[in-house]
Write the structure tokens for this entry.
Amino acid sequence: MRLETIRGRDMRSVAAAARREFGDDAMILHSRTTTIESVPMIEVVAGAAEDVDRLRELISPGAPPPAPRKSARRGPYCVALVGPTGAGKTTTAAKLAVSDAAFGRMRAGFMTLDTYRAGGTEQLQAYADIAGVPFEVVHDRRELPSAMRRLASCDVVLVDTPGRSPRRDAMDDAWRDIFRAIAPDETHFVASSTTRTEVLATALQAENACKPTHVLLTKLDEVADTAIAIEAASTLSLPVRWVADGQRVPADFHMASDMLLVGRGQAEAVAK
């Protein structure tokens, strides 16, 4: 999947450059106005139609089930967050619980397996208290059934996990054992947009045991433009439903398609 950032004085020149680069089926995925050395410029991310369509599918994976399945056997819909330390998993869990861009009016609950990081449990407890949602801390697998029973009234349970430790040790094995028992319906790899894409790819590979189903990009407010996030989504090749662009809960949380895409109709029109 090859995408290029193209800049020009106006959309006509940018579209012409895109056609020269990718042929008559060139499409623009994302556009913005910028200033380079005091000169106003149009900047676009463009690619061949096939590649743009593939990336659009990744960034528009659709919402989670409108009524997540609940049954005596299965219980609430479980969404887990995994990823490296510092990516913002705990703050993201809080945003998911209360953001209209996530689960709307569904009743959410928190569960944390992050019992090793100083202050990690207290941070999520504080968010739970403010949001008025139930909160469970699970230290080992034996505690999981009773914790899930206490969260049974929730529509969705958000599972926070420790950042991956630099070396695999007994503590790492312990929380992953609980994670396997939970068997989340979705597992979102939480990744900072400020991290180099090759480093993110390595970090994602390190989480293979958790079987990530999605990528959730954070810290978009700390990068020069969203083309960097688009490149990350392209490299990681997992659906991106949500992105975050700051610390405010829940304001700085959005559907990925709202932040990263222009409409397909507009893309086709400028590529002709």
